Amino acid sequence: MIKIIPFNTLKTGSETTAIAVSEDINEFSGEKIYYEIEKKGRDLNEFKGKQDKSIIFYFPENIPAQKIILSGLGEKNNINYETLRNFASNCVKQAIKSKTQVLDIIFPDISKIEMEEEKALKALIEGACLTNYIFNDYKSKKENTTINSIRIAVDDKKTEDLEKISQFTETLCEYVCFARNIVSTPPMDKRPSKLKKILVENAEKAGMTTKVLDGKELKEKGFNSHLGVSRGSSEDAYLVIMEYIPENYDETIVLVGKGITFDSGGLDLKPPSGMEDMKLDMGGAAAVSGAAAALAKSGVSKKIITLVPIAENMPSGDSYRPGDVLQSYNGKTIEVLNTDAEGRLILADALSYAEKLYNPDLIIDVATLTGACMVALGNNIAGVFTNHDKTGKEIVEKSEEINEPCWQLPLYKGYSKMLKSSIADLKNIGGGRYGGAITAALFLKEFIEKSNWVHIDIAGPAFAKEDRHYISKGGTGFGVRLLTEYILSRK
């Protein structure tokens, strides 16, 4: 879909050409043929190059294009990589409205702003690819609302070098969209047996080896916490294991993603309004699976192990009950006081298993874990908890760079007493209304003995209630870019 082309290619004609215009940078396109129309756009009161403003010219004079899209970036001091993502997103949306099939975007002259060329190109491609997406699998009439081809026109001498960046960025975006798709898929079509097949197929296509433990094997290994959650469902529980092991790897990283295919709350049943979007509760599984595939495709020199515990949390005559005590994989006993705090139970066994079996340098778990994290940080920001502050800070910094925003929250030891049980080692909830994201993270920490560990709570940003720029309504794929870019940057 994305192709890097030399600018000279456009001299023979273009269906639709998109140009970035700044309020206070002259000749930002870097190509003389467009200088006059840039100036014309800046002179229009309804446009002026303001951020997120766009305008279309049809059959412009002296330019070999049927349509020209001018899209504003605003003032120079406010232009950053996210501005470029949004610029590309606006161009794609305008092109779709005008029924464009091939969109040519002029890569702006970034020598006029303080940006790295490679990062600027990646941002532009991300904005374009992630906007040129639609989830319409369940529409009886499918309208064509995407563009067939997007071409980025660059300096003729740089085409070959920038093409390599383009290829991987497009691949990464494809895995973001893979994650979006499975989060948005109705729960009837991703019940545990179906989700494990989807994840295995995706992993094997990316070159990873896979193994699946079913309920019988999980019972033999002592995954009783995980199996407790699954008891109410007519479907089996699974642990999907995906491995990418290159030669001469320099460290081992384990990714763990919560895979609750639908969360009714169990016997502690959610109200109807609380169940409407609970197909999203495997957003962590989607994130780690997409990131693992992207990393495998990148050829990174790190051993990447991905574990996805899968279950469906349903009420039935055999559901686990408030008051039950479950013995986890690492031997700790858990008093269940709320069956709707189930994600931490399936993660507990997977975290212990990951540490024992792989002795990793780093474990990162990703989960739509708590509504409390959304209360603290809103819908767009993920919460980061860690026993290794340096890693936490690096992840937050990377999240700011790529605009998958995270904020580090404390693992306050003083709250650990809230998890103490009078009849077991732990309770699965802290009790009371406050600090729920922290107590959930502290619960998970009980299943980490020595490894560097990060927990990312994506309850808010895993699912969008409305479109915003290149993030579409529904599953967002949050975490795929963050995990991939962070792991690639580790030294």
Characterise the protein shown here.
By secondary structure, the chain is an alpha/beta fold. The chain has 2 domains: 2-155, 3-Layer(aba) Sandwich (Leucine Aminopeptidase, subunit E, domain 1), CATH 3.40.220; 174-489, Zn peptidases (Aminopeptidase). It has helices spanning 35-42, 81-97, 117-131, 159-184, 192-205, 215-221, 224-230, 272-275, 283-298, 343-358, 371-377, 389-402, 436-445, 480-489; strands at 2-6, 14-22, 54-58, 65-74, 102-106, 149-154, 209-213, 238-244, 252-257, 259-263, 303-313, 325-327, 333-335, 362-367, 382-386, 406-408, 426-427, 453-457, 463-464, 474-475. The strands form 4 sheets. Strands 7, 8, 9, 10, 11, 14, 15, 16 and 18 form a 9-stranded mixed sheet that branches. A 6-stranded mixed sheet has the order 1-6-5-2-4-3. The model has no long low-confidence stretch (mean pLDDT 97).
Counting copies of identical and different chains, the oligomeric state is single chain
Structure class: alpha/beta
Total helical segments: 14
- Average pLDDT works out at 97
Q: Helical residue percent?
A: 25-40%
Distance between the terminal alpha carbons, to the nearest Å? 32 Å
What brief labels describe this structure?
491 residues; 2 domains; single chain; Leucine Aminopeptidase, subunit E, domain 1; 20 strands; six-stranded mixed sheet; nine-stranded mixed sheet; Aminopeptidase
Strand-helix topology:
Elements: E1 2-6, E2 14-22, H1 35-42, E3 54-58, E4 65-74, H2 81-97, E5 102-106, H3 117-131, E6 149-154, H4 159-184, H5 192-205, E7 209-213, H6 215-221, H7 224-230, E8 238-244, E9 252-257, E10 259-263, H8 272-275, H9 283-298, E11 303-313, E12 325-327, E13 333-335, H10 343-358, E14 362-367, H11 371-377, E15 382-386, H12 389-402, E16 406-408, E17 426-427, H13 436-445, E18 453-457, E19 463-464, E20 474-475, H14 480-489
Parallel strand pairs: 1-6, 2-4, 2-5, 5-6, 9-11, 9-14, 10-11, 13-17, 14-18, 15-16
Antiparallel strand pairs: 3-4, 7-8, 8-11, 12-13, 15-18, 19-20
Helix pairs in contact: 2-3, 3-4, 4-9, 5-9, 7-10, 9-14, 10-13, 12-14
